[in-house]
Request: fold
Amino acid sequence: MSDKQPIYILPENTERTVGKDAQRNNILAAKLVSDAVKTTLGPKGMDKMLVDSVGDITVTNDGVTILDKMEIEHPAAKMMVEISKTQEAEVGDGTTTAVMLAGRLLENSEKLLDMKVHPTVITKGYNLAAEKAREFLGELCIDFEHNDEILKNVVRTAMTGKGAETFRDNFSEIIVSAVKQINDNGKIDLNNIKIVKNKSNGVEDTKLIKGLVIDKDRVNIDMPTKIENPKILLFSEALEVKTPDDTKISVSNSAQLQEFVDREDKVLKSMVEIIKSSEANVIFCQKGIDDIVQYYLAREGIYACRRVAKSDMENLARATGGKLVSNLHDLNNNDLGNAEIVEEYKHGVDDRMTYVSGCPDPKALSILIHGGSEHVMDEMERALQDGLGDVATVVKDGKIVAGAGAIEMELSKRLRDFAHSLTGREQLAVQEFADALEYIPLTLAENGGLDPIDVLTELKARHDNGEVNVGINITNNKIENSLDAGIIEPLKIKTQAIGSSVEVATMILRIDDVLASKTNTNQRGTGMGYPGME
Ligand code: ADP
Ligand code: MG
Reply:
């Protein structure tokens, strides 16, 4: 028997890290991700400039965008990126917060690991703390009484620190009216708000269009460029004569050919007759429009766009109140949509778009962003999306909490009290959880150029004093009641951030063995084969 013979159960090129090393590596990676976004948190957070492999530049303050563009490779770090994406998908804001919490939970768990606390005890304590935190959030949140001022404050809070800050009064008007307008008996689908960019003028010209901007010009230059009080036909088929590809037409003399052409012309003309008699004077056609039809339509003074995207057609129906028509013979005057104006506009150098505006009660809308450069407009779009996400969340969920670190401070305080009631080692984990929450106000202060320890000490004292909504207002550097200061956030940002950060921390802490197959042989060493993580 040979006991010297090594046994291989894994392919040769698999790198394996086990036990403590695996844990520490993963924790370090998670912490690096959290550190990467840390400086962007809050009103005085800084932006990051990301340049991709082909040289495209993104300037942003948005956590999820930063992590997405970083092309992170480490598996544990990727799990962190995932939570920012979930946060974005679920709430549309709070991505930096979620990642920072997860990073801090993992960092703090290292202390406990050093004290030989078993990872399962830590994760149990974290989950216990998260459950308790949700309970406290339930006690601390406030019912939002459908009040526009509060909604605008929610938007202003979401916008602080974004490049959009200067325009936040304008933006908050736009966002609140947009969400209220598309609210369909409590159902809010943000897909019904289409954000369109026009590189001209300044950001201050960004506006809400009660209708839609469609990325299509009129098909024929003889058509009018503007129609007032239009009657809009939304047609989902082609305005053409359909001859299947394999049809053979045999004509033996020119008279026959002429007859064929005349017949086709008649069919096409009759399409225009039907449209005309329905009183439609604008057509959005999902498919093609024959040249001859275009000619007749133009002669009748009808405005038409072709090959309009299906999603735009559906949104047009929601905006104008028109119905999608698929058969002209069924066309009825009642199927037509309404607006105040349909008009062609020039975007940029030679791009033309069609504006459908002044719809009576649109359930789909466009927000038109203006700006001098693509980078600026992109960041405005992200800011708008954060605001839209927050307002939609508040309107649906009906609960708000005090921002500027107030809610985190109060949760932290209550969790510390709760920890005292525990006897086992989980107590230590609950304390670390409480500590992790303080990382948010601490970082807000730090990014705002304040002394984080001073701020934290005063916040603690005031919360101990029963001032549950006191936070650090970074706009005026005052420690004050965040609700009174109008710094308000949706409850869901916090429940989601806490839930997903604990989830990822739990997952990462439970790993004690990393088996990575190497695909690339010239990776630099971390013992893990992931470049950039040494
Ligand atoms: P996230 O990606 O987590 O949303 P942000 O950079 O948008 O990160 O920052 C959000 C944090 O900034 C929240 O905790 C919010 O309460 C806080 N905040 C917003 N406005 C202020 C303010 N005027 N003073 C202090 N904190 C603020
Ligand atoms: Mg935010």
